[in-house]
Sequence to fold (388 residues):
Amino acid sequence: MEHLITSDFKLGIISGGQLGKMLALSASNWDVQTYILDPFINCPASQVCTHLTQGSALCYDTVIEFGNKVDMIALEIENVNVDALIELKKRGKPIFPDPEILRVIQDKGLQKKFYSTEKIPTSPYQLYENENEILNAFEKGELKLPFVQKTRTAGYDGKGVKLVKTDKELKELLLGPSVIEELTNIKKELAVIVARNTKGETSCFPTVEMVFNEEVNLVEQLICPANISEEIKEKAEKLSLLVAEKLSFEGILAVELFLTHDDELLINEVAPRPHNSGHHTVEGTITSQYEQYLRAIFGFPLGDTSIKLPSVMINLLGEPNHFGKVKYEGVTESMALSGVKTHIYGKKETYPFRKMGHVTVMDKDINQAIIKASKVKKQLKVKAWKNL
Fold:
């Protein structure tokens, strides 16, 4: 169903972080009112939304009350009370993504089972209820080092993921139900953002390459287009579209993939919302991931995802040992470079490796964009007024 855009339409966005902020900014172009639900009164989206409700997305009653105020619900985070969303759906509230699909994606174990059932390639895995089960499996020889442990729920931005390579690390396992994956021989980590609207029409953004900070498992740099062959690019996009179609997904789905040294593609995991791997689309492609999300859930034709210019995105992370009120250094120097677009999220406090903003660097030559991005990374620092 196509939804009518009017000045009275209230779009509810659950969570008001940087993704919620950028989604609200995009919605404002269509004169759509944006209602944000977030635990923090001064969250990034508070600067730009129509109305802010302070509260937890995990509280059933809070989500129900919030949902009753709006005409449609969109998400910028997976960690939401699904039971409340299912009840709102029963009452006729349009919710994107569908809560039943969200329940699968929330749980990395259910995600893995879905890939296995649908014969979608993914890393070999095993499921364990707790750390004692993992240790018992290791002692029996059923599990060998090295491996990757992922908590089944609530992991994000590198949290809930642990690379276990030594006996010492084996004694420091994450608590709770986990997915254990074999350590994949990875050549590159890729991402494809897929949009699927309410009419079943689909579209892909160009495949990007992600470079991670190994210390905290956060994306440090994003390169678009990815430096891969046309054949691999087509396979990555086809596989990502397949995941969205098998899920009957409506909205925007970020699909993270491993490219092995044998040029095999494996699905790592998905995010049912705008994603860090699509920040560059605000300036780098004709349609941004945020506008595409709105087009998809409003039932409108999907936008053109063609690249305007090759781009590199770098996350602005809090400097090590810096805690407290934030200040940014090197802004003037970095903005002096051509093609540099800076986004400051508006978080008032910094701490080590917290995502505080991002910079997109564009150039006709991707190699020049990479060089400029490296300069920006050295110049632009996120610090506290008083550091430890």
Notes: The chain has a mean pLDDT of 93. The longest helix spans residues 230-247. Residues 186-384 form a domain with the D-amino Acid Aminotransferase; Chain A, domain 1 fold (CATH 3.30.470.20).
